[in-house]
Amino acid sequence: MIIKDLTNYLETIAPLSYQESYDNCGLLVGDPSWEITNVLVSLDITPEVVAEAVAKGCNVVVAHHPVIFKGLKKINGKNYIEKTVISAIKNDIALYAIHTNLDNVADGVNFKIAETLGLKNIKVLAPKEEQLMKLTVFVPKEYSGQMLDALYAAGAGEIGNYSNCSFRTEGKGTFKPNEKATPWVGTPGRYEQVEENRIEVIFPVFLKAKVLAGMRAGHTYEEISYFLELLQNQNQFVGSGAVGVLEESMATQDFLAHLKDKMKAQVIRHTEFHTSEIKTVAVCGGVGSFLLGAAKQAGADIFVTADYKYHEFFDAEKQIIIADIGHFESEQYTKDLLVEKISKKFTNFATYLSEIDTNPIKYYY
Questions:
Q1: Angle at 12 between CA 6 and CA 13, to 5 degrees
Q2: Distance of alpha carbon 12 from alpha carbon 15, whole angstroms
Q3: Pick the CATH number of 3-101+333-353 from 3.40.720.10, 3.20.20.70, 3.40.50.300, 3.40.1390.30
Q4: What is the mean pLDDT of residues 299-328?
Q5: What is the top-level taxon of the source organism (predicted)?
Q6: Residues 247, 27: Cα–Cα separation, whole Å
Q7: For the whole model, what pTM was predicted?
């Protein structure tokens, strides 16, 4: 297996187009054509993690946080970022980051937190818009099945738990080929009418090129009549945060103890208890204050996240409990999530969970 095989798979789980504008996901260091020896999975990439990769015989590190966020003008080892990059290059270690794109998918970082807390009926907290497109294409009636098969194979027509979704209407297509045309049906210079189907399918924006290639492969016409629309619909499987419900309500104090235990939190900073019971829980790994409004709108009793600032705690306004468990603590199980997915997909190399504690925050008791 080569690195490109691994990155292609990871980008089907969390497409790079789903990352936030400030982020820097993808292959940061290394050649996609390198053959994979073994893979090390970590939350962060530091010189110590690269050294661990060398010791374990791994030439790929897959991490949640990118070690390079901004452009590097010099690489002379003056900080941990430059030291990490130098060490990776010297040891032929590829570095791959899967950050906010993994935050923004169902079954990603936030769903892992929700599952760890035992939540049910988990949904994306703040679904994103303009992540879906609709293709409308006109095809000879008798070739509609061939066209739909090609579109489905390219990933179109999947809506939640349903596949092979489409809509078709019957009608007549008209055209008049000129003398340079080589029509599949009809004669140059002659007006034609053909029984056609108008086929409509929805697909994620990142699959546009693949779906159009499938359309062309499945069509019979020399010139294909089609159009694309960017939809305003929310994609319920792409977006920030997650929200779910406990199987049974818990006393607020008991839920905080449960949260501390399950997320291995050293301390929980929280707002006052405005409710005696917790049933609906919203979560966001890492910095989550931007989702407080969505958590309130979802009717959450508590919002579990990290990196809250002093003045932001006032925004709870006795409508919701804010619980800050720490950045590392909120995202630590991302490593387990990635190891599970990579190990299940690839069996011809080993995937290791990093043993390095990369949390830069320590607690004094």
A1: 95
A2: 6
A3: 3.40.1390.30
A4: 98
A5: Bacteria
A6: 40
A7: 0.90
Query: CA-to-CA distance for 26 and 207, rounded, in angstroms?
Result: 17
Which contacts qualify for 348-352: CB closer than 8 Å, 24 or more apart? 348/1, 349/1, 349/36, 349/37, 349/38, 349/39, 350/38, 350/39, 350/58, 351/38, 351/39, 351/40, 351/41, 352/38, 352/39, 352/40, 352/41, 352/56, 352/58
Task: Tell me which of 3.40.50.2300, 3.40.50.1820, 3.40.50.150, 3.30.70.120 is the CATH number of domain 131-231.
Answer: 3.30.70.120
Please name the CATH architecture into which domain 109-127+239-325 falls: 3-Layer(aba) Sandwich (3.40)
**Got the DSSP string for 75-109?**
-SSSSHHHHHHHHHHHTT-EEEE--HHHHTBTTSH
Provide the pLDDT confidence category of residue 320 given band limits of 50, 70 and 90: very high
Task: Look up residue 320 and give its amino acid.
Answer: I
Task: Please provide residue 351's backbone torsions phi and psi, each rounded to the nearest 5 degrees.
Answer: -120, 120
- pLDDT the model gives residue 192: 87
> What is the token pair recorded at 314?
């006032």
Residue 217 CA to residue 214 CA, distance in Å, equals 5
C-beta of residue 221 within 8 angstroms of C-beta of residue 197: no
Mean pLDDT for 49-56 is: 98
**Is 266 in contact with 219 (CB distance < 8 Å)?**
no
Asked whether 222 and 267 are in contact (CB, 8 A), the reply is no
CB distance 110 to 283 below 8 Å: yes
108 touches 14 (CB < 8 A): yes
Indicate the pLDDT class of residue 202, thresholds 50, 70 and 90. Answer: very high
Dump the DSSP string for 123-172: EEEEEEES-EEEEEEEEEGGGHHHHHHHHHHTTTT-BTTB-S--EEEEEE
Helix 334-345 vs helix 109-116: crossing angle, to nearest 10: 110
